[in-house]
């Protein structure tokens, strides 16, 4: 018979395994999702989750007993703040449109800050002296680099009236959008308002 040797057997040493888990803050909001061997600092604030929860973890929170997760309540939406931001956006759209172009005589006339300064300079000269400034070229360059003929002061006034009409149209459009904004009752209705 063989000899029985009484020797202690060493227990197998298990390597720590990576797990998928989320961490939570004191109030139960989730603040991270990991696939790793949890460090000791996560021991008291972690919940093991499956892959499906991990993919959507920002939509969950820790449950009351902090041993599982549940869908987080919907975020409170500040409709007044959304409306204020949209109102600012409408004002910016109007300003940008006013500083772009306006139609006249089948052409688009530039109305950026430099062009508007030139238009106003000619208008002021006409207002002060009743005529075009010396050296006026007899027309206005359109955005396609062709000249719109302005043979006399009345032709210039007609162009200026086209610019004013476009500005008035832009103002009225902004007011229509602001009326829609005033009656909006949901974030989606606010978001749907575009220039």
Overall pLDDT, averaged? 94
How are helices and strands ordered from N to C?
Answer: EEEHEEHEEHEEHH
Q: Please summarize the sheet with the most strands.
A: 3 strands, antiparallel
- The overall number of domains is 2
Briefly characterize the structure:
The chain is α+β, with helices and mostly antiparallel strands. It has five helices and nine strands, in the order E-E-E-H-E-E-H-E-E-H-E-E-H-H.
Kindly describe this structure.
The chain is α+β, with helices and mostly antiparallel strands and 195 residues long. It folds into two domains: 19-71, no CATH class; 79-191, no CATH class. The chain contains five helices and nine strands, in the order βββαββαββαββαα. The strands form four sheets. The protein has a three-stranded antiparallel β-sheet, with no helix packed on it. A two-stranded antiparallel sheet has the order 4-5. Strands 6-7 form a two-stranded antiparallel ribbon. The model has no long low-confidence stretch (mean pLDDT 94).
